[in-house]
Design brief:
single chain; four-stranded antiparallel sheet; 3 helices; 8 strands; about 30% helix; RmlC-like_jellyroll; Cyclic nucleotide-binding domain-containing protein
């Protein structure tokens, strides 16, 4: 389905796992302004960006959504599919036209059960992304709503 291990797949996964994962992907594109998902919605897929930029945002009552992070080439969009209750913790919007690999969570869960080493590496990769995103969200929210400069030294 796809050529050799793509440079668009994260290097956090060994080459043989990238190849197996890509066999479960489909290529998709989103126009500028398209919403990939909304905070609180059912998380049943994820993407790896090939080209373009996506912003992750968080609902803030009484205000416009706060942009938490901008994602680009080779970055994972969506991690909530891996952890119960499989609900998006943030929203995502294409700020430029985007091309990406899209993965069905059910198919990837099944592949992970068939190949435990792949499942372990995938979980470690996604876990590191979650850790990074939580830190980024904290810093961004402190920058937006904390005392001046509160997030800069964190």
């Amino acid at each position: 389905m796809f050529a050799p291990p793509s440079p668009s797949m994260p290097r956090a996964l060994p080459a043989e796992h990238r190849v197996k994962l890509l066999q479960n992907a489909r290529e998709v594109s989103f126009p500028q302004g398209a919403r990939l998902f909304e905070e609180g919605g059912h998380a049943d897929r994820f993407w790896v960006i090939r080209t373009g930029t996506i912003e992750l945002d968080m609902h803030v009552p009484g205000r416009r959504a706060a942009v938490i992070e901008r994602l680009g080439h080779n970055e994972l969009v969506g991690w909530s599919w891996l952890y119960s209750p499989h609900v998006w913790h943030l929203g995502a919007e294409a700020v430029t036209p985007v091309r990406a690999y899209e993965f069905d969570a059910g198919a990837v869960h099944a592949l992970s059960k068939e190949e435990p080493a792949l499942g372990r590496d995938l979980s470690q990769w996604v876990g590191s992304v979650v850790s990074h995103r939580l830190h980024a969200a904290r810093v961004r929210l402190l920058d937006l709503y904390g005392p001046y400069g509160a997030g800069s030294g964190v």
